UniProtKB/TrEMBL annotation:
Residues with PTM N6-carboxylysine: K193
Reactions the enzyme catalyzes: 5,6-dihydrouracil + H2O = 3-(carbamoylamino)propanoate + H(+)
Coiled coil: none
Gene coding for it: LOC108676158
Source organism (scientific name): Hyalella azteca (Amphipod)
Single GO term (MF): metal ion binding
Name of the protein: dihydropyrimidinase
Gene Ontology biological process: pyrimidine nucleobase catabolic process
Pfam families (alphabetical): Amidohydro_1
Domain Amidohydrolase-related positions: 92-481
Annotated family: Belongs to the metallo-dependent hydrolases superfamily. Hydantoinase/dihydropyrimidinase family.
PANTHER family assigned to the protein according to its UniProt record, in alphabetical order: COLLAPSIN RESPONSE MEDIATOR PROTEIN (PTHR11647:SF1), HYDRANTOINASE/DIHYDROPYRIMIDINASE FAMILY MEMBER (PTHR11647)
Amino acid sequence: MDELLEALEEQIIVPRSAGTYAAEPLTAPPRKPDRGFKQSAQNRILIRGGRVVNDDRMQDADVYIEDGVIAQIGSDLHVPGGCRVIEAKGRLVIPGGIDTHTHMQLPFMGTSAIDDFYTGTRAALAGGTTMIMDFVLPSRNESLVEAYHKWRAWADPKVCCDYSFHVGVTWWGPKVTQEMEELCQVHGINSFKMFMAYKDVWQLNDTELLHAFDACKRLGALALVHAENGDVIKENSTKLLAQGITGPEGHEMSRPEEVEAEATNRACVLSNQVGCPLYVVHVMSKSAADVLSEKRRAGYVVFGETIAASLGASGSHYRHTCWRHAAAFVMGPPLRSDPTTPGHLMDLLANGDLQTTGTDNCTFSGSQKALGKDDFTKIPYGVNGVEDRMSIVWEKGVAQGKMDPCRFVAVTSTSAAKIFNIYPKKGRIAVGSDADVVVWNPHATRVISAKTHHQAVDFNIFEGMEVHGVAEWVVCGGRVVVEDGEVRVVQGSGRYIPTPVYSPTVYARTPARDAAKAWKKVEREPYTGPVYVANDASNDGTITEIEPQSVKATASYARSSVKVNQPPGGNASGSFW
Ligand code: URP
Ligand code: ZN
Ligand code: ZN
């Protein structure tokens, strides 16, 4: 480990390929200066002596922050006196993490997630994540726009870090298309999640999925899918319960890998049929991840997100003899029992086949999970991760020599910012970018535990794991929120970040791709020979030859009638047309 860190320190600073920039400046609302953010030296910060890491290069430089944005980067900076100085020698200075997938205080399966927008975002900051992307999930027939306002009202007074929303298309109808448009044009939404599981609750059928993908394409939005075959899960669950398998192991048995891989493949095919870019959330298995790799190689515009849980834990816990322990890991799709899964997912993340890391943070206490004590289908789904994601990715990725710090930055923030069109405001240490900055100590270690974590939930799926990589200082929107490991947040100080449609990372390819793939009619002379139709009246296999132009006209246009015992295509009965 120490050799690796030394090697990183010696690393030559090499520019990589240029990134894709957001087409237009973003228009997030101004910060709220009256919420603990005084107009004083507190809003002028110098991070001195660290190594700045972006997804494409590393450089030793100081970073000067003023009024919530990065104002200067370099050495020997001219900064006003009286600014706050953070010493970062021997540390990496990285963009604040972006967790692409959380569910704070989600009302779900008869209860609500215990980490709300306050405890959840506070924990995020403690671990070096400065922005979360949460989900508005309307109930069946609920207005999407009303649900969006409801979620905003929950989040705005509580969030300690910046946040945005994906919106669930949890049912289908003409009103949904109109509301999707309003959400994109007025409310800064550029991504919609469709469910292929949760039968009779949120699941869409294939025709509805096609329509939803089509709507996303027309709006320049990104289609997100939860890829699992909900019909298979429902059937398997019924059979398992009938056989007396009621414990958490039944959860995993009801939805094996191929159930995820099949849906992943189907989602790729359906979205590709309508030319809609696709982002598969919470990729949990090797085979589902391999489907995405294969499709990307075949030119499909698909992106894959994996999560801290699948990189840092395994499905063996479902067989734990303590019910509470086993139930704590229940989530959909489930963790996989194949012990090579976390390593494989990390390999794909490192080589670019998977692009982002979220957490699916959706936490329930032991007594909430106990709603399913006699029936695994009633255990509320969800695990923690928002606080530990950055450390898990560092430990399993960088510390194992699978990825370098630039790729670490890419998969923890930059790729998300590009895909969801908030780059380079987010996901980059650059002049003009939001001052969401983490001073990351790659040498430091910590042991993860529910006893010390900042989340409200009483269990941590990474309990006892020692991880390298600690967020020692965290600056969010120009405010120091983690100070030498101490968390100091202000409730409600985070901002809602609108995500504009037509992300260049997602959509720049589509016009040319659509043109290249467009259906082309074959120009030919019209057919002028005889046309045969069945004789309706006789119903005995007799067919009538009619003029080609008279096919849609009445039988009185018939020219001749020929009795045929075995007409081509078999005996016709009734009218074929
Ligand atoms: O287990 C999970 N994933 N809970 C949250 C809902 C979802 O499907 O993302
Ligand atoms: Zn999901
Ligand atoms: Zn989720």
